[in-house]
Design goal:
CATH topology: TIM Barrel
CATH architecture: Alpha-Beta Barrel
Number of helices: 7
Largest sheet: 9 strands, mixed
Number of domains: 1
Structural class: alpha/beta
CATH superfamily: Aldolase class I
Order of helices and strands: HEEEHEHEEHEHEHEH
Number of strands: 9
Strand content: 15-25%
Amino acid sequence: MQMTVEELLEKGLALPLMEEFYTIQGEGFHTGKPAWFTRIGGCDVGCSWCDVKESWNAATWPLTPTDEIIKKIVDCPAGAVVVTGGEPLMYNLAYLCSEVKKHNITTFLETSGSHQLTGEWDWICLSPKKFSPPLEEIYQKADEYKVIIQSKGDFAWAEKNIHRLRSNCRLYLQPEWSRAEAIMEDIVDYVKANPKWNISLQSHKYMHIP
């Protein structure tokens, strides 16, 4: 019997695929490394400064069989996939991860942490949002904690929850792109005064790549 859309989504056998492409990771700890990017549509966080607002409405994007998505990931020479959104944890990602792991693909997740974690991940980048904070369970699983800085008040937010993280979690402050020039000096000064933090830049935008 053919599955309904709801059943396919529940089992992770289909996902609303916004886009997929081969590029260079531009942010955080793994900056400069090649990877296949799978961007899943749908987001209920809604950051005002989001540069992919078109991803928010999942209904805009075709419900794609996960096996088709997996084939593209496996065929990419990088041997690594970054799953991003939108907010990818709105969906069950266990099947996607289990299948690509059979091909020794390294799995990276970019998430706000506002939904239950599914899937097997080699690296989790947790980027928290004030208005939809992460679930408690994900703090101890994050490998990288990347906070977007839009104004000076965001430094206090960045510090607020780092006690929940593992001691070896990498800490990053990243300027919001449209405010980068205005806020960069403050970020540099803050990191110099608080060297547990690193600076992340959206280097892919400087390279003019996706």
